[in-house]
């Protein structure tokens, strides 16, 4: 028997992993042996066969696109032969016993009838398979009773049992959970294998594995570039939106630039189901509706959104309707939040009284025997109370263990042509401050109709909320209250003042506000309707159009009771205040896109899109203030005596119009060499009339090195190098007038009402443009056991839009100009390693590490922002706007500490000399508030149906200005001595010559200037998320309950915090620690 063998020498042996490769092959009229040789060259494998049994001269015609090698070879050799793996990349082609089967043919399409080329068609029992051709056709030999499996990238796998049908036509359903293979950008979808953009994608299940609070808190744990800045004033207040950054900043944060409808200029753009939305809608969104989240970070991915994308884009996709029988799903989320007060280092009653004695509060400043006798008597009374055990812990009074619950019900189903998805959700959310909370509700109806080449979908959302602020007032009032005072008098009543008979009558009992009728409540309601139509003009051309209508209204009512102590020194007719603010926002957006896809000469894949958008937003606000209310009244404005005599009703309206046209091209050669190009021309009324349009573009280059010959693919599963660069913009500032605006004044005389300039026109104001460069590396090794994504980036925003101070004679404080630039340099990495990956026993342990480094620098300001620097000094701000320095730099005069001999602070001057005199001219950078390194260390375990995840956030390096040291250890005026302070004010202050102390003398009550003494190095560990989960399906006990799938999760969020800096956190509203539970059942 004559045998032939083709042996090709390559740099590395591929081994068992070879047949998991996907190649593209298009051969017409070639002998079988030539086709096998071509596959050998492409896949770096060898075939051994007998040409006595295999007809190697048989002419074959094949066309496969990105298809597994095993499927291609099986299609070539036919069902009479099989492949047997040997070693070192060698495979035998041997005959098999003749089976009694029949030839089955059919067509595979998507849900709208579009043919799908390259679908894998496999007989489950024999593992023999073929692939569909370019028109979706397939032929395969199969026996009765065998199961045919159809699988394709981005679609759900479908199985069909063969019952001697003559043909089978299969429609595959899109699988939105196949996130590792498809990138959802909100405008187009791209195969991850050929996409050059820097993106991160997470499924709804991954988000829910971190916590059930909201998707923002989950994203921050999963992606290192997504930073949620701590709000040290508002803590965990559910009614305050977080400040978010993606890869640093692109704008100066200044309220003078923003109108009342503007957003945080450094916040990313949010896209919900293909249309723009706001941060509040994302925070309130029911997590159970979310299918996926995609973060677009670099120019190649964000340039799709042009002038709005400089801060990154967060794309949220909700679950889509699915065909089949109606499925009912219920999810219950429950959380218990407790205030985190561990960073409050306050004195107890005896410490506070001793501190007051040492500080001289109980010693009269002049020799007056009668006054001193009274002070001694009062001191002794308080001392006696303390010795009797009076030690009030005020911090527990305004706080509570908050219980929050959310209930979600969804139903989905339908036929191949018509599908629906409907849901209701309600959340009763309590805050850890008594009386505070946020209740939300929502409803959605999603309809989808597909017939032939037309696909029509409509998504309708309606939601609302009620937000309540605590009637206990600011939490800081309780942190300042003296512990040697009782909460109630001898009759158990709450008194107005804590020390009505003492030397101080301004110590308001912080509990008193709970006895009056003050309130602060906001209600809102909104709806969105998204209509989308897709028409497949040909097999390569698709037309897509969409329209969104959106309306949101809100009303805030604030009532301050006339008996509130803030009105003690106000006339009777002005006691009490009612404020009402109404906001109405309406917008529409429309888009039209033409898509072309084709594959040329088996290796050249091209996708091109041409899109146009129009948008209009109309925002209105109206506000009134009424003053003077009788005691005992409620928040009824008709009870007021008058409008505020120093103000008048406010009204504001803004209209924004935007349009754009965009073209984008995605090209891949043999899935190895990649190119993405985007060009977008944006028009907007937000900038000057002479600068209505601005171009934005990006270029992305990629190289799939792992697809090159000679690469050992059994070791290197993925090695992709990407370089992108381009321009994006920022419109979060609101609008800038192109014409000057005047308003009538509040006074009038015989000549009429006067007018004043309120807005000075700047028709030449340019758009902020950010040039973004990104170098990325994606890698997966050892059968995907180790994977990582690394990105090095640089962003340069030039020009910035900055408020430059104007002379007082203009009647305006500032004027927006294009001044300076801001450069951001950074690095981010996400690395995962599967320490244990026992699929047979369903046991997995994965260790993950994320990290981010961000550095920023101003330039090009000169002296144009000197006024802003002076304002910062006067307000006590630590930020400065100087060339060559960072927005995160902390500016202060260097301090050498406290002189042991005198107790005075020693300052370091610019000339290197020391001085006891503080001079702002000696200011320099003494720290940087941004960590040198920040990220998350995660451990994820799964065993059978159980999962466990532990996520710890770390922050290394960086400095923090400790406000507790500055305001509650030092800088305590005589009037503030009577309020509670940090323990260090008693134990760590200088008292006598020779003391080695960090802080000035305990009797020092003069104002203390800011210096580097209050800046501390910070290293931090946070227990961000711990979760335990269980999932049950296909269980007999579930069948008895009529449940198909049951999931249970328990979470602990922000349960641990260890910092090298001891400073009070959550000054007006405390931070919270959370323990949560979630249960989901599908019927």
From TrEMBL:
Assigned keywords, A-Z: Cell outer membrane, Membrane, Transmembrane, Transmembrane beta strand, Transport
Name of the protein this chain belongs to: SusC/RagA family TonB-linked outer membrane protein
Family, per entry: Belongs to the TonB-dependent receptor family.
Membrane topology: Multi-pass membrane protein
Record flagged with keyword Transport: yes
CC annotations in GO: cell outer membrane
PROSITE patterns to which the protein is assigned, alphabetical: TONB_DEPENDENT_REC_3
Subcellular location: Cell outer membrane
Coiled coil stretches, renumbered: none
InterPro entries for this protein: Beta-barrel_TonB_sf, CarboxyPept-like_regulatory, Plug_dom, Plug_dom_sf, TonB-dep_OMP_SusC/RagA, TonB-dep_OMP_SusC/RagA_CS, TonB-dep_rcpt-like
UniProt main location, coarse: membrane
Domain TonB-dependent receptor plug: start-end pairs: 192-313
Pfam families cross-referenced by the UniProt entry: CarbopepD_reg_2 (PF13715), Plug (PF07715)
